[in-house]
Amino acid sequence: MKHEISYEHPQADAAGGKACHMAHLNGLSFIAATLLATTCAVYSAQAAEPPADLCSLLSAAEVSKTLGRDYDSPQKTVAPRPYQNTASGTDCNYLAKGSKLWFRAYVDPSPSAAADLFARLSKLYGPQTPVNGVGDEAYFDGEHALHVRKGKVRFYLNLDPVDSASATEKHLRDLASRVSGRL
């Protein structure tokens, strides 16, 4: 007596085969989605790290184009700590004939530390006008300087002199959007 071994399920049919094929495709789709999400998360984490040279967040060419006059490369110095046990920052001063753009930036240990410091410091710069669409939070102070927080980075842009408050605020908002986009 001869016995045959069958590898097919007795009730397997075309519909059952399609169901198996669909389950396999769903599994592959899940793997691909997981890989894509992981890749994007890693890329996002890398993009959120600020550069070692904070002045590189804003080139003299961008400043010149936005403000409509020729600015020199920034003069870089160390910005003082706002409070004891906080990080020092970087001052980047862009000079043009009769004008100065001051870009000051700090990198805090975490986004929550930056948010806490941003809130504490904002009490010193009143009155404030909130600015939407720039960083995680931003405002213009009473002198038309722009204060921004994006993640764990806090930065400040101040143009001197202020010829027209509305034009100055537009220019600073444009520059801040560029900086924020790089963080």
Describe this structure in words.
The chain has 183 residues and is α+β, with helices and mostly antiparallel strands. It has two domains: 10-48; 54-181, Protein Transport Mog1p, Chain A (3-Layer(aba) Sandwich). Helices cover 39% and strands 22% of the residues. The protein contains four helices and seven strands. The chain has helices at residues 14-48, 60-67, 111-122, 165-181, and strands at residues 75-79, 89-96, 99-107, 129-130, 137-140, 146-150, 153-160. Strands 1-2-3-7-6-5-4 form a seven-stranded antiparallel beta sheet, sandwiched between helices. A hairpin with a 5-residue loop joins strand 5 (137-140) and strand 6. The model is unreliable at 32-47 (pLDDT under 50).
List the helices and strands and how they pair.
Blueprint: H1 14-48, H2 60-67, E1 75-79, E2 89-96, E3 99-107, H3 111-122, E4 129-130, E5 137-140, E6 146-150, E7 153-160, H4 165-181
Antiparallel strand pairs: 1-2, 2-3, 3-7, 4-5, 5-6, 6-7
